[in-house]
Amino acid sequence: MMAANPTVHLAPLSLSAKVVGSFAYLTVKDRMPTILTKVIDTIHRNKNQFLEQYGEEGIEAEKQTISLLSKLRNEMQTDKPILALTDELSDTEAWNRYLQRHQEQQGDQESVSWFKSPWLYVECYMYRRIHEALSLHPPISDYDVFNEGKTRTYFESQQAVMSLCSYFEGVRQNMEGLAQNQLFEYFNNLLQVSLWGNKCDLSVSSGQDNSQKTSPIDSLSSLQPFILVDDSELVWSILTSGQTGESSAGRVDIVLDNAGFELVTDLVFADFLISSGLVSEIHFHGKSFPWFVSDVTANDFQWTIRQTMAANHKYMSKSGAQWQRYLKKGVWSYHDHPFWTLPHEYCDMEAEAPDLYKKLQGADLVLFKGDLNYRKLTGDRDWDHMVSFGAALRGFGPSPLCVLRTLKANVQVGLQLGQAEKLTSEDPNWMTTGMYAVIQFNSPKSEE
Asked: CA of 98: how far to CAs of 93, 95, 105, 376, 395, in Å?
């Protein structure tokens, strides 16, 4: 069942590819088929690897997987109806229930199609169908078609990672006896590095090079005017409000977005929260299978920490070793609930995944990274820009939450009077370029 909420009937329509020329339309028409073509190419290029590992069975699996993905691309490009999943994985029933509900709402199956249905739904569905194509064809079921791009962006961002780890080492050495305003300055810098790390999104660039080449700290002052909403002081007040003497805010949960450089920025920020004493525990939430080209899976999370530990750079390897210690001690932990790879808006979470909602209620603060999380938080709907962030959440509020997001989809709420109009006059595409960002906070208490 969809979440029962008194404001549901006021919610605007979902963004969809029905509107010719819209960003959703161009995504379904051009960007998503491009991503699928690259997936097919990646599988084909690695057929020798499958042959070496699995023999003829691997080659046959490669052919059958490519056949399914080519069919999927054709369905998308010709606006065919969305089909039920057939792979019988643990989430298959939830996906098929979601489809059935849409079909019942529309009154027929033909209306639930690639261009007519909500963009958020069909984009999530494409990644689940890629997962299905692989899962139906062992022995290559666990192959990560996006792994090459994720590892490449990590290595191509090495200079920026070195700069960031060196900066953080300086912060760590000066941590003792810092005044609150100095600690806030470091907090703000590393929060903003994590924010701008979100520009490195391979699903938006259709897998093109999107690595970070320059020192992120040096760019912060020039990027400041591009932060449209900056609630960093509200986030800081949550982290410091419970502090008396040596006590800390307790637990922060970080709902991750991209692997590569962005994940490193998240790990450095999380390290700062622990080593400064602001927080005593961090739960990271990632995806349970490859998703939206560059999203973090358990494998990406562990691989990034191992690579950073093994780096031939003093402060990178020191950071990586520290992160590994946090995991061993249970100070950090990684989780990947299946709800994160379902198409639901987050206002459905309490009804659809009450166990996850309850877990998030145990956090003092939940940080959501990136554009897809923002789209799911706000329902990816055609909201007026001046609607409050709290209203757009439509009842979702397990804990105080903050989203760190660079804008790459045309949904943005919580702006000031005239702010959106001014941005549109300067750049009609301001919501989709990744040039602008928000640090947007909401507390369930403030909504009561």
From this structure: 9, 5, 11, 15, 20
